[in-house]
Write a sequence for this structure.
């Protein structure tokens, strides 16, 4: 089991999920969906489907404490669970054929992000052909000589800033093949590069301040202003990102001084070959052409960020941006058509394994949805906290969210699924609903280790085993788990 691949891990989890659908009773909450074309709500359940007026009175009558504007503006577009409507339904166990078909269904359902990953791979393949990366890495290594630690601080902090403001998560997939070689050229191992990117993204997300895909949609679903509790989340962001950077720096300095202390030391040669470090021994010069190529390449990320934050772009538009960038770079570098296509396809093929992992992960969610056990877990989680003290209640909710994110590794999906059900529990417990929002946010700490989200695709890109990563990250996980529980205990008593 020590060297088990990510693909086998995902299939084992899928098999266990299928078994769960035979053991856990099926159930569901009625859901509420807004239809913009008819300006009506649709309440859907196993025994009921009806249209309702799209008014605040309708929401209040259903005990859905969400402003009407959140639906009509499109801020909430997923079906919202209706509190108090849980019903046990006929069991829908997922058998062998459902298990076998789940990866295929998952790849179809996740086609948008899979195409993004493949097109990013194609762009990287074209970039590698130009030599612009090699020239840039050589230049940057010279600039940071003796101050390599700055690279860790800047990368982790900037990505965390993206995570806390606009949910910089899936977009980081594009950064590993670019930045990890930079960290390796600076004398660190691939784990330092992976950690600076992935941990920065997770910490930013779990300490979201203005992230529309997380804290804003969760606050709307809880029926409160997203600014409620903002100061506490800012403090949490500062604490967690500081601890994370210090943790990475400690490991990085140890590896730099004693390379044999690296968790990946026995893979050093293979990783250097994979990231093309040996090929970079003959560094091409930085020319005007290569500088222009780098500008176009970096502009792709600028356009992506602007599109997501200002124009409501998502995977299709982002993927088209990277394709356009690859074509422009091909023209600037004067790459012949046949060689361009070959480089693009070769680069995409390097990330095909990542695409399979994404499909496997999505297939697990489909198994759970088809087996109708998600709402049962949610209903039971809400009932076990009844009668607890404030401190025990809030920390129990926090641990519950850590577990739920394993089942539903989507921040926006988790918000609309759980917040209408869990937020009213704060009223009976005697504290503000923003505390429930915070338990949801801080519960994203589980993304540090759960294999059903972006972790395994990120590890696959970097050719790092899940077991090696867990050995690296578990001390930080324990530290942050304790810190978040202490912070929540303090917040509930303020």
């Amino acid at each position: 089991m020590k060297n088990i691949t990510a693909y086998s891990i995902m299939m084992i989890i899928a098999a266990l999920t299928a078994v769960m659908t035979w053991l856990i009773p099926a159930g569901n909450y009625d859901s509420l969906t807004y239809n913009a074309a008819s300006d009506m709500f649709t309440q859907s359940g196993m025994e009921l489907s009806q249209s309702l007026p799209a008014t605040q009175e309708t929401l209040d009558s259903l005990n859905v404490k969400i402003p009407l504007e959140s639906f009509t503006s499109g801020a909430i577009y997923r079906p919202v669970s209706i509190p108090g409507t849980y019903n046990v339904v006929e069991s829908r166990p997922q058998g062998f054929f459902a298990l076998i078909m789940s990866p295929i269904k998952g790849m179809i359902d996740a086609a948008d992000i899979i195409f993004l990953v493949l097109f990013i791979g194609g762009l990287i393949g074209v970039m590698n052909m130009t030599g612009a990366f090699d020239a840039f890495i050589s230049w940057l290594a010279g600039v940071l000589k003796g101050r390599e630690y700055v690279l860790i601080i800047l990368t982790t902090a900037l990505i965390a800033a993206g995570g806390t403001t606009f949910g910089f998560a899936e977009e980081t997939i594009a950064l590993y093949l670019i930045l990890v070689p930079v960290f390796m050229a600076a004398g660190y191992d691939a784990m330092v590069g992976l950690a600076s990117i992935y941990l920065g993204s997770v910490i930013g997300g779990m300490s979201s301040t203005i992230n529309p895909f997380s804290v804003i949609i969760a606050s709307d679903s809880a029926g409160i202003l997203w600014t409620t509790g903002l100061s506490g989340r800012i403090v949490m962001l500062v604490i967690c990102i500081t601890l994370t950077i210090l943790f990475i720096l400690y490991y990085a300095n140890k590896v730099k001084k004693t390379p044999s202390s690296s968790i990946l030391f026995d893979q050093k040669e293979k990783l250097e070959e994979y990231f093309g470090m040996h090929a970079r021994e003959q560094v091409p010069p930085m020319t005007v052409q290569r500088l222009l190529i780098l500008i176009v390449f970096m502009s792709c990320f600028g356009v992506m960020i602007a599109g997501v934050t200002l124009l409501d772009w998502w995977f299709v538009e982002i993927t088209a941006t990277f394709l356009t960038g690859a074509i422009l770079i091909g023209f600037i570098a004067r790459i012949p058509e046949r060689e361009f296509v070959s480089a693009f396809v070769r680069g995409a093929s390097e990330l095909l394994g990542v695409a399979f992992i994404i499909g496997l992960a999505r297939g697990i969610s489909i198994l759970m949805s088809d087996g109708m056990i998600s709402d049962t877990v949610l209903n039971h989680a809400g009932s076990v906290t009844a009668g607890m003290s404030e401190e025990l209640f809030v920390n129990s909710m926090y641990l519950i969210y850590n577990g739920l994110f394993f089942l539903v590794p989507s921040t926006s999906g988790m918000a609309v699924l759980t917040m209408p059900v869990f937020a009213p529990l704060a009223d009976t417990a005697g504290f503000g609903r923003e505390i429930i929002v915070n338990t949801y946010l801080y519960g994203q700490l589980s993304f540090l280790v759960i294999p059903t989200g972006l972790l395994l695709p990120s590890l696959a890109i970097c050719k790092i085993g899940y077991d090696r990563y867990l050995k690296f990250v578990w001390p930080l996980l324990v530290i942050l788990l304790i810190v978040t529980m202490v912070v929540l205990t303090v917040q509930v008593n303020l």
Observations:
- The chain has a mean pLDDT of 88.
- Residues 146-265+353-494 form one domain.
- The beta strands are 27-28, 31-35, 40-44, 49-53, 80-81, 87-88.
